Every structure is written in C-alpha cells, then in structure tokens.
Give the backbone structure.
Amino acid sequence: MMRIGRLYMSKDKHIAVIGTGYVGLVAACCLAKSGHRVVAAEKNSDKLKQLQGGVMPIYEEGLSDIFTAVTGDGRLTFTSDLKTALAHATVLIIAVGTPSLADGRVDLAQVNAVAVAIARLAEKPLTVIMKSTVPPGTGKSIFKRYFSQAKVPIQYVSNPEFLREGKAVWDWYHPDRLVIGCAAPEVADQLIELYSDIEAPKVTMDITSAEMVKYASNAFLATKISFINEIANLCERVGASIDAVAPAVGMDKRIGPHFLQAGLGYGGSCFPKDTKGLEHVSVFNDYNFNLLKAVIEVNARQRVTAVRKIIKALDGVTGKKIAILGLAFKPGTDDVREAPALDIIDYLISEGAKIAACDPLALVSAKQRFPTEDIQFYTDPYQACRDCAAVVLATEWPEFVNLDWEQIKQGMQMPCMLLDGRNVLDKDVIKRYGYRYEAFGRN
Ligand SMILES: NC(=O)c1ccc[n+]([C@@H]2O[C@H](COP(=O)([O-])OP(=O)(O)OC[C@H]3O[C@@H](n4cnc5c(N)ncnc54)[C@H](O)[C@@H]3O)[C@@H](O)[C@H]2O)c1
C-alpha cells in the first residue's frame, strides 16, 4: 500500500467485470494490468470460449498484448458465472449492452438482469460501478429497486465511459476526464483510488448528473456532425466548398476542429442509440428537444442523399454492380453496428443493385448481417471494384484512401462513379483519372 494525499492506494483489489465487449474487456485488461485481480463474466458462450482459450474476440489496438500478459500471469480470468465473479470482489463493474428498442427507447434488460443477480448474490459489501450507458435516472431507480434490498451494503456509482473504439486502450489511460457520480464523498474516493494511475481530472457529482454528462456529450458530438453536414449540403447549393469552410470554422477555439467532417454521417454502437435514447428521455419527461430531433433526422437523411447521388449518376441501379469500400462504422474497428455502409447497402439492394463489399477487419460481423445472394464479400478492394459502375468509399480506412485509384478505374464499368462518402480523396486527382466524382459539399 502507498499513501497518496489522504488516500491509501491498493493495487490488488478484487474486481468483477460483467460483460466483455469493447468497454468491459478494455476495463478488465487495463485494471488487471494496473495490478488488480479481475474476474470477468461473459454470458455469450462462444465469446467466453475464445477468451478462456486466449483468443481476443474483438479488434482493439494494443489490447491483445495486455490481454496476453494479464491472462498469462493469472490476474485476469473469465467465467460465465456471476457468483464466481463476485466471490472475492469488493468492486464490480457493469459493462453490458444497452441497445435501442425498436421505438428508440434504451433497452435496459441486460443491466436490470445483472442488477437483480448482484442484489441476490452479494454476500459482502460491494461497490457497483455502472459503465454501461444508461438514461438519466436509471442509477437511482436501480439502487432503490434492487441494491437497497440486498442483504449487504451496496454502493452505486455512475462512471460513464467515453472511450473511442479503435483507440480504446489509449483512451483508458488518457481520458479527458473521469466522471464519478455517487451519493457520498467516500464512495467517490474509492474510485479516485481505483483510477490513481490515470492522470485526468476526476469530476465528482450526483448519479443522475453523471448519467446526463454521457448523453449530453454524445448528443453534442452528434450535433456537430449533423451541423456540418447541413452546411455541406448548403455549400452544394450556393457554390461554396466545405473543404474551405469547415477548417476555417474549426479554427475558432470556441468551436474546435473535431467532428466537422462532412460525409455519410455518424454510426456506431453509441451515437445513434444514445441520441435516440436521449430523445426518448425528453419525450418521457414532457420536453420537446427539437434540436436533437433534427440532429437524428439529418443523420438519417445523409444516407438517403448518398443513395440518391448514386441512383442519379447511374440512371438507376437495378442489375448494376456497386462496390462498398468500408463496412466498419469507422476505421480501426471491426464494429459494424449502425454503420452508414450497412444502411446504404440495404437501400441499394432494395433498388435492385448487386453489392461487392470490402473491409480489412469487419467482414465476419458484416456477413452475419447480410445473409443474401445480392452481396459478395471481398478482402481485396481491387477485386471488389472490378466491373462495378460505382464505388462508394464508406469508411476512410487508410488502405482504401491510398488505393491506386487509376488502376481501380481501369477495371470499372461506365459511368465509373466514385462516391467519396468521407470527403477524404483528392478530388482533382480523382477527376483527372476520369471518374464521375461525388462527395458532400465539395464544390
Ligand atoms: N463501444 C463503445 O465504444 C462504448 C463507449 C462508451 C460507452 N459504451 C457503453 O458501454 C456499454 C457496453 O458497450 P459495448 O460496446 O462494450 O457492448 P457489447 O455489446 O460489445 O458488449 C456487452 C457484453 O456484455 C455481455 N453480457 C450481457 N449481459 C451479460 C450478463 N448478464 N453476464 C455476462 N455478460 C453479459 C454480452 O454478451 C456482451 O459480450 C453500453 O452501454 C455502451 O453504450 C460503449
């Protein structure tokens, strides 16, 4: 033990992590690397088998090495059984999924199931840290309904996670801030101690406010994306260029340069569900969040705009082959949840197109999403684009951005359309190769 200020730092806590997705697995590996003993529970038997067999079920830069080290020295183990995970734990992290229901509400079934089980199984005092993204008010309700009824004292902390997939390990060690929402200062101290090797402002507040910070942050970032897409669409109509406009707008320190890239819009496992979730919270609380509604609508429309550009350029897509380069919702991940490419593929297939899809990491997950003959999957982008009338650059993987676009064009069919869904290619060079080039607001 070492003393830090008035806190004693213990590097060998027993920690349970429930759920080994992008959040839970990163937390489990990094906390074990910090010296704690971590037992992670996973209910998906295929994933559990992989984890117990030393195989990483997801791609996340830098995670594999940590995983090998901490499983090798026995600091991180895996189980399907919550009781086993809880056996020695004084701290438990919930990192299960909170997907959207069909009406946009947040599905709390996984979170509630874990909370019920913890309340039933806990046999010694426990601090429960909620890392899953849950709507404001959820923590208070979970505490009242489940944890206040447990046989032993359970402290509840909202500690929302802000990591970015593809950069999750870096973000674990270098977050902009750690948000700690709890009812008592001594509980916050426990988390400050737990994260003592992470240099970041540790911001403490009440539980509901911490939950709101997560939703407000994602909604704001989504707003920036939809806003710049609106400006790009207007640029097309007035003859301005978003390439000139967006960087100059971003130079204003009050605005900042991030999330001002016009294109197909946001996707992924967080922004779409969290914006819809917050919108539903607003409705439920009798509040009309008009701005957020518009952000969601603009994002959905952006995909349709992309498809309309393709249909117009090809004079209809029935029977035509179209390549989609990039299926992951962004580069650096194998996650295809709510990826713009998937919506575009759906639209194009429903219009009769044949799809050649290519991605360096996400083919396995994408194949499960499209069990249809209308789509073929490729690892080689040059093969994917052969005989295509159009190519859509949907994810800005560096290996796609840096393709030999002259060579790609030689294998294509007229009108050789290239839709740069991320506004990342050098449009003058691309046009010189003879493409019919389309993007968003790049006059
Ligand atoms: N993915 C991100 O970039 C990110 C970033 C910040 C916050 N979040 C939030 O964190 C939460 C988790 O996200 P994720 O992307 O890691 O989810 P995920 O779907 O990738 O992983 C969740 C895991 O929990 C497991 N699980 C569910 N119920 C379980 C149970 N009872 N016992 C054991 N395992 C169980 C599932 O099988 C799955 O493997 C979500 O609320 C999400 O909104 C995600």
